[in-house]
Every structure is written in structure tokens, then in C-alpha cells.
């Protein structure tokens, strides 16, 4: 009986140590964490337009909402990225298109320009 208890305690200790090691493994990346692969992936989300008191949302289905009409003449439309992340296009009413030059982007900022320079800052 003593031998069986010793074996059970050893097994319990082995399981406890194994479970503890699993908890110390590195965590998977947060799905909300930005990975700067491309502007197409980075731009999805809500952005404050610096110095304009406005927010623009770019959705993963390549549509956008801009209630203040700060970037275009429409409150909503489509967006796309071209030319290796150097051109950012907003479409309004299916045919009125503006193409912004992308000066730079990070996970939290996008600097674009047309007639005027804009900096988009990710809302958190």
C-alpha cells in the first residue's frame, strides 16, 4: 500500500510540474495588436484626424465612414491602397475618387497628403 501511495504522489507531482510549465510558455500575440505588414492591414480601425476634431473609421471590408466629411465629400464610401502602400484612395458616390499620397505609416499613425497634409492617429 505504501508503494502505491508513493507512486500516486509521484504521478501527482509530475502532473503538477507539467501543468506549471504550460503556464510559463510565451503567450500568443494579442489579436488586437498591430503588426505593420501593410497599410491595408494596418489602416483597419478608428482614427482621429489630427487637428480636425474628427474621427474616421476604415473597415476590413474596404468601406469607410467619415461623419465629419473631413477627408472626402461623403460620409461613407470605399477605400483602397495601391502602389506598394504609397497611394491611399477614397471613393465617394461610386465615382468621385481622391488619391492621397502616403508619406509614412506606423501601427498608430498614418501621414497622408493631397492638397493638405493629414495625420491619422489610431484611437485606442
* End-to-end Cα distance: 61 Å
Q: Tell me the helix content.
A: 10-25%
Largest sheet: 8 strands, antiparallel, barrel
Give the helices and strands as they follow along the chain: HHEEEEEEEE
**SSE class:** alpha+beta
Strand content: 35-45%
Backbone shape = elongated
Q: How many separate helices?
A: 2
Give a structural overview:
Helices cover 21% and strands 38% of the residues. The chain has 2 helices and 8 strands, in the order H-H-E-E-E-E-E-E-E-E. It has an 8-stranded antiparallel β-barrel with strand order 1-2-3-4-5-6-7-8. The relative contact order is 0.15. The radius of gyration is 25 Å and the shape is elongated. The protein starts with a helix and ends with a strand. A hairpin with a 4-residue loop joins strand 2 and strand 3 (63-65). The model is unreliable at 25-31 (pLDDT under 50). The protein has helices at residues 2-23, 39-42, and strands at 45-49, 54-58, 63-65, 76-82, 87-92, 96-105, 109-113, 117-122. The chain has 124 residues and is an alpha+beta fold.
What's this, in brief?
The protein is α+β, with helices and mostly antiparallel strands. It has two helices and eight strands, in the order H-H-E-E-E-E-E-E-E-E.
SSE blueprint:
Blueprint: H1 2-23, H2 39-42, E1 45-49, E2 54-58, E3 63-65, E4 76-82, E5 87-92, E6 96-105, E7 109-113, E8 117-122
Antiparallel strand pairs: 1-2, 1-8, 2-3, 3-4, 4-5, 5-6, 6-7, 7-8
Keywords:
elongated; 8-stranded antiparallel barrel; single chain
